[in-house]
Amino acid sequence: MLENQTERPLQPGDRAPNVVLDAITRQGKVSIDEFRGQRPVLIGLFRGLHCPFCRRQIAAMASLAGELQEKGIDSLTVVNTPTERARLYFRYHPLPNLLAASDPERISHRAFGLPNVEFTKSETAWPYKVGMDAITSMRIEMPELPEPMDPMAAMEFLDKSDGYEFTDDDKHMIATGEGQLVGEFLLDRDGVVRWCFTEVADNGRNMFGVPAPREVMSAASNIAG
């Protein structure tokens, strides 16, 4: 259930909507409102686990969970992967302190204003359409890559490196949400956004990247206590 939907990503000062999702790493449901009035929370809204960049973004966010908890801040990771498929993945790739939820319909992404980009041959109207010519002209540099690669080549390389085996659930998520943009939002205990990092910002300059840990922890320090 949603309190509202927005046509732009939520920004600092915006009140986050309530979203209720199926939990992955525990039984039952997870909702934004269970944190509201209780504790601040860092919410990461990602594509499905089929996306090698998101797998790394999720791991990067999870690596900060312990430090955030020390500041009294919880973390919630949301993936587009269906619940049972996601549970199977995290069973074999556990991440300490991970609270994760499944959102295959991308309800939370729409509620937080993250668009699902349409891929075109050559027309770009960011952040709603992007031409494949623009995508293939991008170069991604990561320690795991042998050289700077365009996103498609990088995904193929990383999937092979990870030994990721695609299921029908993964293929369905790719078909319906391959262009879903992602983001992280730090909410205070009242559920108001105090910091965010999204692929929408700066004409997509954050695409496939992660926020610097010091940036996340600096924002966390500002609302801790």
Question: Please, could you describe this protein's structure?
Answer:
- This protein is α/β, with parallel strands linked by helices and 225 residues long.
- The chain has a domain at 20-115 and 165-223: Glutaredoxin, CATH 3.40.30.
- 33% of the residues lie in helices and 17% in strands.
- The strands form two sheets. It has a seven-stranded mixed β-sheet with strand order 2-1-5-4-3-8-9. It has a two-stranded parallel ribbon with strand order 6-7.
- A hairpin with a 5-residue loop joins strand 8 (183-187) and strand 9 (193-198).
- The two termini are 30 Å apart.
- It comes from Rhizobium tubonense.
**H/E element sequence:** EEEHHEHEHEEHHHEEHH
**How big a fraction of the residues is strand?**
15-25%
Radius of gyration: 17 Å
CATH architecture call of the domain at 20-115 and 165-223: 3-Layer(aba) Sandwich
- Name the assembly state: single chain
Runs in which pLDDT lies below 50 for 5 or more consecutive residues are: none
**How many strand elements?**
9
Determine the CATH topology of the domain at 20-115 and 165-223: Glutaredoxin
Q: Any idea what the CATH superfamily of the domain at 20-115 and 165-223 is called?
A: Glutaredoxin
Shape: globular
Question: How many DSSP H or I helices?
Answer: 9
Q: Which class do the helix and strand fractions yield?
A: alpha/beta
CATH class of the domain at 20-115 and 165-223: Alpha Beta
What percent of the residues sit in helical stretches (DSSP H or I)? 25-40%
Looking across the biggest beta sheet, what order are the strands in?
2-1-5-4-3-8-9
Termini separation comes to 30 Å
Largest sheet: 7 strands, mixed
State mean pLDDT (0 to 100 scale). 94
